[in-house]
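Q: Convert this sequence to structure tokens.
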Amino acid sequence: MRGWVRRALFVTTSLVAGVAFAATLAAGNEVRVRASGLGDAWRTGRIFKTQPGCLMVKFDAPAPGGYTSASLGGIAALEVRDGGGWRAVDVKPIHAAEPADCKGDND
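A:
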């Protein structure tokens, strides 16, 4: 297979994968997270989208230190409410596909 065809297939596959990952998280989704610097306990909240298009979690109650939200880059583990249980979601590829403005110093 020619090099340019291989590269085109890789780019197309990467874009499709990024869209599929993003589809697993949407504004309003009920989630629970473990975030770096906030202890080992699960924190519940909901996904919201900022003006630049960044997905974040707004906690149901303030976390230690008064934190009320976390970016995907600061989340160690995330699970989405799925019926009566929870389904794990890998946030790394979702965060990697976000706009550059969503990747700050704390990520």
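DSSP finds two helices and six strands in the chain.
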